[in-house]
C-alpha cells in the first residue's frame, strides 16, 4: 500500500467511517495494511482424554485485496481455522483483528461482524432448498438488513448464473449451485470472503470456472479472499499460498 | 422475496396442512361446543325474555329453581289482587301454567295460556279476528279455541274430575296444541295432525314462528285440569307488565308487601338459568381447554420436529450473521402462520358444524358469536407463542459449525 493510500485510510478512520479501529488503542500501521490478523490462535474440541488440540498457536495475516490460499493435509485444522476466522466459533486463546479492530468475545459482536464484514462460501454450497437462487441471496441480504439491489443482479450476471435466478437448488447443476453460493457470499459487499474447499465437490471444468470467478472479483473489485484447499491447482490461482500442519502455519509467510 | 417462514411451510405442504387441520379441530371445538352450550341455554332465556312483561311472580321459595319448575303452586287470585290493589303500577298480570311435554323426542316446557294473553306472551302482533289470534294467513284449523271445561264450570273454585272415557272421546275439545315452527320442522308436524304426549292425544291446531315464550302452547284451563290434579285455581307463574314510567325497584317492593311469593325482574331469568345449568359451561370449557391444549401440543411437536430437521438451514442463516432475535422471529412466525391457518380452518369448520348440528337436530341452537370467535383467535395467538417458544429456543442454540459439519 502506498503512502497516499495509508494517509487516506487514516483520514477515513479519523472521521469514523464505519471502522472500529478508531477506538482501538492497539491498532497499528500493520493492522491497517491487513484486513485480518490472527495471533496465537488455539482451538480444541472435546474433553478429557478425547480432547483434540486442533489449532496450536497459529499466526496469520491477510493483506487487503489479497487472494490467499491455505493448504494442508486432511485433519490439519484448515476448516477449523476458517471457522475461527469467520467468527463462527471462538478460539480458546489468541487474538483476531478484523479490519483494524480487535474482535471481542461476545456472540452478538460476531454476528454483527459476520453480517457486515464477512462472506462465507461452503464446500457443500449450503443453499436453502425451498428457495430460489434469487431468494437465497435475498434472505442473506435480509438477515443483514439489506435489500437486493443492482449489485446482486450484477453478481448473478458476472458469475454466469443469471439464468438460474428463479430456479431452486434441486433444479441447478452443482457448479451453478456453488456460483450462486458465491453470489450470496458477495452480495452484501463483505470486506473478507472466506471459502472452505469451494471446489471440493465440483468437477474440473466447474472448478476452473469458479476459481476464475474468484480471480476476477479479486482483480476487478479488490475483494480479499482466503481460500482453504487441498488442491495444488486451486492454490496456484492465489496470490499467496501458506501451508498448515498440525494446527500451525509451517510454510509461507504467515 | 419469498417470505422465509411461508416458504418453509409451503415446502412441506402436507405436514403444514395436517398441522393446520389439527389446530382447526381444536378451534372448531372451542367455538362450536361453547356455541352449542350457550346457544341452547340462552335461546331458552331469550324466548322467555320475549314476553312483554317486567316481572315474574313464582311460588315462594323456588329461587333459582324457577327456571325449570312446573305445575300448580301459585294461586291465580294474585293476578287479580295485583291489578286491583296496585292498578297504578300494574298494567297486566297474566297467569301461565307450565308443564313438561315430550314431542319430537325432546322435553319441552309447554305453556298453558289464555288465548287473550297470546300477544303479551309471544311478542307477536295483536290479533284481529276473535279466535284467530295469530293467523294472518288463515292457516290455522283453530287456535286453542276448544274448552275442556264449560265457562260456567271454569268459574267455579273447585276441583273437577272428568271421566277418563269422556276425556278420551275423539275430538274432545280443549286437547289442542299450538307449536312453533322449529318444533314442527324437527318432528315433521303439520296443522291438524294428532300427536300423543303427556298421556293424552292432542290435535295440533296451529304452527307459529319460533321465538315465542315456549315451543308448545295449550289452553290454560286444559293444562290446569289435566296436570294440576283437577284444580283450576292455580298456575305456575304470573307475568306482570308494569305501567310506563314505573320504577322497577320500588314497584317490586310494593308488590311484595301484597303478594307473599317471589317476585323477580324478568331480566333475572337468564341469571337463574345460569345458576341452575351453568355447570354445563364449566364442563364444556374444560373439554375445550383439553382440546386446545392437545392442538397446541401438536403445533409444538410439529415445530420442534421442523427445527430438528432444519438445523442446517438455521446454521446457514447464523453463518450469514442472523441474530438470535432473527432466528426466534422466524420460528415464531412459522408458528403464527400455522396457527393462523388453523384458526381460519377452525372458524370455517365451526360454521359448517353449526349448520350440520342444526340441520340434524333442529331444536338445538348453536350460537356462534363474534365474542367467541375473538376468544378463539386470542387463544390461538397465545398458543402460537407458547407452542413456538421451546422450538425457537432450540433453534437459537443451534451450533453453526457443528450443524454444518455434521451435514
Keywords:
heterodimer; A: 254 residues; alpha/beta; six-stranded mixed β-sheet; 10 strands; 35% helix; B: 407 residues; 2 domains; nine-stranded mixed β-sheet; two-stranded antiparallel ribbon; elongated
Topology:
The complex is a heterodimer of chains A (254) and B (407).
Chain A: H1 3-14, H2 29-33, E1 34-45, E2 52-63, E3 67-71, H3 78-85, E4 93-98, E5 101-102, H4 107-116, E6 118-121, H5 133-143, H6 150-158, H7 174-186, E7 192-196, H8 204-221, E8 224-229, H9 232-235, E9 240-245, E10 248-251
Parallel strand pairs in A: 3-8, 3-9, 6-7, 7-8
Antiparallel strand pairs in A: 1-2, 1-4, 4-5, 9-10
Helix pairs in contact in A: 5-7
Chain B: H1 4-11, H2 13-49, E1 55-58, E2 74-75, H3 77-85, E3 90-103, E4 106-113, H4 118-122, H5 151-154, H6 164-167, E5 176-180, H7 181-187, E6 194-197, E7 200-208, E8 216-219, H8 220-227, E9 234-235, E10 237-242, H9 248-258, E11 262-265, H10 268-277, H11 279-309, H12 311-319, H13 324-360, H14 370-396, H15 400-406
Parallel strand pairs in B: 4-8, 5-7
Antiparallel strand pairs in B: 1-10, 1-11, 2-9, 3-4, 3-10, 5-8, 6-7
Amino acid at each position: 500500500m502506498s503512502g497516499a493510500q495509508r494517509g487516506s485510510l487514516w483520514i477515513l478512520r479519523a472521521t469514523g467511517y464505519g471502522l472500529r479501529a478508531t477506538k482501538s488503542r492497539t491498532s497499528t500501521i500493520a493492522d491497517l495494511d491487513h484486513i485480518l490478523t490472527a495471533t496465537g490462535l488455539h482451538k480444541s474440541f472435546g474433553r478429557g482424554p478425547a480432547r483434540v488440540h486442533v489449532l496450536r498457536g497459529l499466526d496469520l495475516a491477510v493483506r487487503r485485496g489479497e487472494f490467499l490460499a491455505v493448504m494442508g493435509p486432511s485433519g490439519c485444522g484448515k476448516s477449523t481455522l476458517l471457522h475461527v476466522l469467520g467468527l463462527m466459533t471462538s478460539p480458546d486463546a489468541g487474538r483476531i483483528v478484523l479490519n483494524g479492530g480487535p474482535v471481542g468475545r461476545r456472540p452478538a459482536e460476531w454476528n454483527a461482524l459476520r453480517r457486515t464484514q464477512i462472506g462465507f462460501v461452503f464446500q457443500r454450497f449450503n443453499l436453502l432448498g425451498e428457495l430460489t437462487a434469487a431468494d437465497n441471496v435475498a434472505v442473506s441480504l435480509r438477515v443483514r438488513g439489506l435489500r437486493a439491489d443492482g449489485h446482486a443482479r450484477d453478481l448473478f450476471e458476472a458469475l454466469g448464473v443469471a439464468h438460474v435466478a428463479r430456479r431452486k437448488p434441486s433444479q441447478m447443476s452443482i457448479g451453478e449451485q456453488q456460483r450462486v453460493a458465491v453470489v450470496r457470499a458477495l452480495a452484501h459487499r463483505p470486506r473478507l470472503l472466506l471459502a472452505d474447499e469451494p471446489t471440493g465437490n465440483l468437477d474440473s471444468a466447474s472448478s476452473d470456472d469458479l476459481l476464475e470467478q474468484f480471480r476476477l472479483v479479486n482483480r476487478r473489485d479488490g475483494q480479499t479472499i482466503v481460500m482453504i484447499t487441498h488442491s495444488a491447482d486451486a492454490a496456484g490461482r492465489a496470490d499467496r499460498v501458506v501451508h498448515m500442519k498440525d494446527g500451525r502455519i509451517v510454510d509461507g509467510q504467515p | 422475496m419469498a417470505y422465509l417462514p411461508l416458504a418453509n411451510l409451503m415446502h412441506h405442504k402436507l405436514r403444514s396442512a395436517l398441522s393446520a387441520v389439527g389446530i382447526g379441530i381444536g378451534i372448531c371445538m372451542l367455538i362450536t361446543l361453547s356455541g352449542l352450550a350457550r346457544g341452547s341455554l340462552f335461546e331458552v332465556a331469550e324466548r322467555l325474555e320475549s314476553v312483554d312483561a317486567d316481572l315474574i311472580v313464582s311460588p315462594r321459595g323456588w329461587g333459582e329453581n324457577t327456571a325449570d319448575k312446573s305445575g300448580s303452586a301459585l294461586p291465580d287470585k294474585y293476578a287479580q289482587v295485583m291489578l286491583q290493589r296496585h292498578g297504578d303500577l300494574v298494567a297486566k298480570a297474566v297467569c301461565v301454567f307450565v308443564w313438561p311435554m315430550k314431542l319430537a323426542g325432546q322435553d319441552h316446557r309447554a305453556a298453558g295460556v289464555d288465548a287473550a294473553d297470546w300477544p303479551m306472551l309471544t311478542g307477536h302482533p295483536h290479533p284481529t279476528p276473535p279466535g284467530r289470534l295469530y293467523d294472518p294467513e288463515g292457516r290455522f284449523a283453530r287456535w286453542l279455541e276448544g274448552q275442556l271445561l264449560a265457562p260456567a264450570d271454569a268459574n267455579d273454585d273447585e276441583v273437577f274430575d272428568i271421566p277418563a272415557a269422556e276425556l278420551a272421546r275423539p275430538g274432545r275439545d280443549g286437547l289442542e296444541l299450538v307449536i312453533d315452527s322449529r318444533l314442527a320442522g324437527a318432528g315433521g308436524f303439520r296443522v291438524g295432525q294428532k300427536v300423543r304426549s303427556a298421556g293424552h292425544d292432542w290435535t295440533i291446531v296451529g304452527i307459529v314462528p319460533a321465538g315465542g315464550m315456549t315451543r308448545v302452547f295449550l289452553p290454560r284451563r286444559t293444562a290446569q285440569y289435566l296436570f294440576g290434579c283437577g284444580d283450576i285455581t292455580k298456575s305456575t307463574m304470573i307475568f306482570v307488565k308494569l305501567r310506563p314510567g314505573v320504577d322497577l325497584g320500588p314497584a317490586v317492593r310494593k308488590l311484595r308487601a301484597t303478594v307473599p311469593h317471589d317476585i323477580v325482574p324478568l331480566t333475572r331469568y337468564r341469571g337463574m338459568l345460569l345458576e341452575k345449568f351453568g355447570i354445563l359451561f364449566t364442563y364444556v370449557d374444560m373439554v375445550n381447554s383439553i382440546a386446545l391444549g392437545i392442538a397446541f401440543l401438536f403445533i409444538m411437536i410439529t415445530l420442534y420436529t421442523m427445527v430438528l430437521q432444519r438445523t442446517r438451514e438455521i446454521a446457514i442463516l447464523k453463518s450469514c450473521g442472523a441474530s438470535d432475535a432473527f432466528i426466534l422471529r422466524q420460528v415464531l412466525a412459522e408458528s403464527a402462520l400455522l396457527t393462523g391457518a388453523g384458526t381460519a380452518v377452525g372458524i370455517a369448520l365451526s360454521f359448517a358444524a353449526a349448520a350440520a348440528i342444526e340441520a340434524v337436530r333442529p331444536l338445538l341452537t348453536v350460537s356462534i358469536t363474534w365474542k367467541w370467535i375473538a376468544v378463539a383467535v386470542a387463544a390461538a395467538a397465545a398458543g402460537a407463542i407458547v407452542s413456538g417458544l421451546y422450538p425457537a429456543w432450540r433453534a437459537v442454540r443451534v451450533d453453526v459449525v457443528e450443524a454444518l459439519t455434521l451435514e
